[in-house]
Every structure is written in C-alpha cells, then in structure tokens.
Prior knowledge:
alpha+beta; elongated
Amino acid sequence: MLAEAVFQNYLKGKTPTEQELRAEYESQVAAMPKTEYRARHILVATETYAQTVIDKLQKGGDFAAIARKESMDNSKDQGGELGWFTPARMVPAFAEAVAALKKGEITTKPVQTQYGWHVIQLEDTREVSPPDFEQVKDRLGQIVQQKKIQTYIDELKKTATIEKKIYSA
C-alpha cells in the first residue's frame, strides 16, 4: 500500500499527453503481428504415425475426416480446425511451420512440439487490422503510466544506497 501511495503521488500532474499516447499506439501497432492464420491440425503421439497421416493425406485423404478419427487434440471434433490465430498464440515450432505454408498446403514432414507431433494444413491468411486509437486510448494511458512508474523505480535503484550492517552478538 505504501508503494502504491508513492507511485500515485509521483504520477500526480503526469497525465499522459496526446503525443505520448500516440507514440505508444504507434509502438504497439508496430509490434503487432501483421498476419493471422486459419489452420487445421492433426496431433498424434509419434513422428512415425504423423508421417503415416501425411502419406494418407497425400493420397487424397480428407483432412477433416482423418483429424476426427486420428487426432489426440480437442479440435478433432471440428476436423482439426483451430480458427484464426496469430503466431504469438502458438508454440514457436508450430507457428514457424504454419508461416512457411501456402494456402491449402499441408506440412510434408511432421512438426514436433511439447504436445506431440502435428500435421498442419494452412487454410487461409488475412492481414491484421490494428484497433482504432480511440478504442484503446484508456489502455494506452495505463501502459504509459506503468512505463513512467518503471522509469521512476529504475532511477531510484540507480541512486539508492544500500548499507549492509552486520551485528555480532
């Protein structure tokens, strides 16, 4: 509670300006992923079995039907459908594999993650549209203020003197 009171006192008169909010907005938009992906996957326990699934698909097998029958993942009820996602929402190996595919393509080699072995089909991609500035203005204000507090803490740490006193009995 004491720290919160110190921070509130520090922030008095430091309301984020329009310029600070716009700068934070631009920074956040620049860091956003530019593309969303819609994909399906089939998750199995072994690389060998995943390769068997790929072989079935390459011979004309129906991805959704095979996913419903073979996948260990909850998405199997939807034929392996994962919906729209950004790479940040997936584990790195999965995200990299999806990004390397073209629409309609299926991975030619199984993709290993901590969950098992994936066979992935990229269904579609779309560009991500950032939210309107006015929609996120309040949240941007919170982010700017949090950054001001962090800068204040960092300054305090630089100028702090810590004395260690050793008492002997």
